[in-house]
Amino acid sequence: MSDVIIEDPRMADLVAPDARLEKLWTGATWSEGPVWWEDGGVTWSDIPNNRMLRWHPEEGGTVFREPSRHTNGHTRDREGRLVSCEHSGRAVSRTEADGTVVTLVDRYQGKRLNSPNDVVVKSDGTIWFTDPPYGILSDYEGVKADSEIGACYVYRLDPDNGELTVVADDFDRPNGLAFSVDESLLYISDTGRSDAPDGPPHIRVFEVEDGRRLRNGRIFAEVSPGASDGFRLDVHGHIFTSAHDGIQVFTPGGERLGKILVPEIVANCTFGGPEKNRLFITASTSLYAIDVLTNGLPGR
User: Fold this and answer.
1) How far apart are CA 33 and CA 52, in angstroms?
2) CA-CA distance, 68 to 279, in Å (whole number)?
3) Residue 221's beta-bridge partner residues?
């Protein structure tokens, strides 16, 4: 069976029909938040085991950081520093060039955040992140606790002055997020189906106003089976999103073109390689990769 399902002929322009999925490493409990580095390595989270892992083609898989405060999603800022969402830290942190980990934000209006989940850095350096309760629902992916905020928001953080603002307040379980190629749009997934069978399983898209606010939100696409957890965009605006059966690929207009089948439930993905034409996939216990015919956006 092919690893690539072509549902629309345009899919073949993005992923070769005979492209093969490679399992690079296995041994995690729940893999999330992959980030590619210029040395060829990938860092990602193994949330329940409270550690971050690293894979390198010459070194194989190693432990990058343990404990990790149950980190989930990661990205890199414009200076190349690692920015991370911490479940048990209930914070967004940054790893400095010397390895020091500093907390950027852990409270909104004096109340502790829930458990930041995924994060992206805009070209102006501002940090946008989601804050569902997965890390406080039990001790499995963090530390069980009550929500002090009582809601699940999407935030914008200005790291220069520490200003934290809510940019979306009508999500059930906000999760993955990514900007469009020109940053005029922000895509945000809602994984409410993880807690309720009739919960939302979709990606929404918003217009970005003045680089600070969101408006005119609408459903971009529904993802099934499962829901969209994390996702990335290529240089043409296609969305490569996680789902229970692998990676699903959508056009900028929300049409599904096809799938990359993965034998484990996928949580997230990122483009890597010198040309950003290799897709790294975190799925349950493992890290996978597949070569593609398109290129991911710079950053992330």
Assistant:
1) 10
2) 24
3) 203
Q: Which residue, chain included where needed, has tokens 């800022």?
A: 77
d(CA 260, CA 21): 8
Q: Is the pLDDT of residue 199 over 90?
A: no
Judge whether residue 194 has pLDDT over 90: no
pLDDT band for position 7 (cuts 50, 70, 90): very high
**Number of other CB atoms surrounding residue 141 within 10 Å:** 23
HEC-encoded secondary structure of 38-79? CCCCEEEEEHHHCEEEEEECCCEEEEEECCCCCEEEEEECCC
CA dist 163 and 12 (Å) reads 44
- Cα–Cα–Cα angle for 128, 130, 134, nearest 5°? 155
CB 295 within 8 A of CB 36: no
pTM of the model: 0.97
Q: Which pLDDT tens digit goes with each residue over 26-79?
A: 999 999 999 999 999 999 999 999 999 999 999 999 999 999 999 999 999 999
